[in-house]
Amino acid sequence: MSTGTTTSSAAGRRAAALAALTEQTIELPSWAFGNSGTRFKVFAQAGVPRDPYEKIADAAQVHRYTGAAPRVSLHIPWDKVEGYAHLAAHAADQGVTIGAINSNLFQDDDYMLGSLTHPDPRVRAKAVAHHRECLDIMRATGSRDLKIWLPDGLNYPGQDDLRARQDRLAEGLAEIYAGLDPEHRIILEYKFFEPAFYATDVPDWGTSLLHCLALGPQAMVVLDTGHHAPGTNIEFIVAQLLRVGRLGAFDFNSRFYADDDLMVGAADPFQLFRIMNEIVAADALRPDSGVNFMLDQCHNIEPKIPAQIRSVMNVQEATAKALLVDREALHAAQQSGDVLGANGALMDAYNTDVRPLLAELRESQGLEPDPMRAYAASGYAETIVAERVGGAQAGWGA
Ligand code: PSV
Ligand code: MN
User: Fold this and answer.
1) Domains with residue ranges and CATH for the chain
2) Could you report the per-residue pLDDT of 5-24, keeping only the tens digit for each?
3) pLDDT tens digits, residue range 348-380?
4) Proportion of the chain in helix, strand, coil states, percent, rounded to 5
5) Which of 238, 298, 351, 387 has its CA 20 to 30 A from that of 212?
6) Mutate to test the pocket of ligand 1, among 130, 224, 292 (most ligand atoms within 8 A of CB)
7) 230-253 as b/e: b if 16+ CB within 10 A
8) Is the pTM of this model over 0.70?
């Protein structure tokens, strides 16, 4: 380390944290910038993007003020355009790149009884073909990750054969996997319920992992923090997936009750710290670790660009705290059975105010220390309200 300090001193840990935070990146979801809501109401916001180009322009603002959000995930067909190379060039002009391509298996009438698990081979073939199209979009945009979230499941016991559906799913995934280029990955997300209520075909990390292991090394698990039952120990899942080298990505968000898609770190910042602590402990923060740190959120009542900025800052704060853990003291306490000492080592880091450290990081990168204030002062919000008149606002599902 250039400072000549070591991580056994507080100054050394601070310097190491700054170095690691400089390299940390967080991927933004295009859909966070469009209108969204609940099944009861979508509240339209002035200045919202009307197409994927404007969504990317808004995402670039988040990167501009945080310096930590250089990629944007797309959702197909919501972000369908005429020319994907043109869209990628537009992203590059704005200083960002295209991240994961999300397939969509939940908005087609054919998929009422399932997509890759559907009893009818015609429907299954249609779902596979959709992923082939997504792979072509990845080639045109330079994206690495094909993200699959399977909404398939059953509402009633006996509705279909639980085991046959797993077999159909394995077959469909294998067909998609066979179409990957060497640099591509399938990242397979799990969710314990919704839209199906009795049984979901990929309900948990174990099921996702089993399918990934059967597929091969280019298949990894996605952990969406909102997709667990209340009380689930998510950091245990993180540790377990890291152990076997299959944690491909996070979809970060917060939940109070179901899949709330609120800002990450808003509901339970301590949980986010515990997750990032496992990441740091496993040295998985490195850009080449294979873990893609993505947001998957919807901003129904709050302004969208600042909500994404706040979310990136929340991830950075949890990460900074995790980086400040005195790992030597923690290890020593664990080895000697010092329960309170070990817990204290974590809590000392968690209770550190890391905002001055992050302000210093941003200033060292030529950024304003407070991204929220800098964005508010930029006038961008007023400009898009004035300029984006006419046309149809993009929303969840467009
Ligand atoms: C499903 O709830 C999910 O988390 C998946 O990632 C989808 O692609 C995303 O939400 C978009 O709504
Ligand atoms: Mn998700």
Assistant:
1) 25-323+367-387 (3.20.20.150)
2) 567 899 999 999 999 999 99
3) 999 999 999 999 999 999 999 999 999 999 999
4) 45, 15, 40
5) 298
6) 224
7) eeeebbebbbbbbeeebbbbbbbb
8) yes
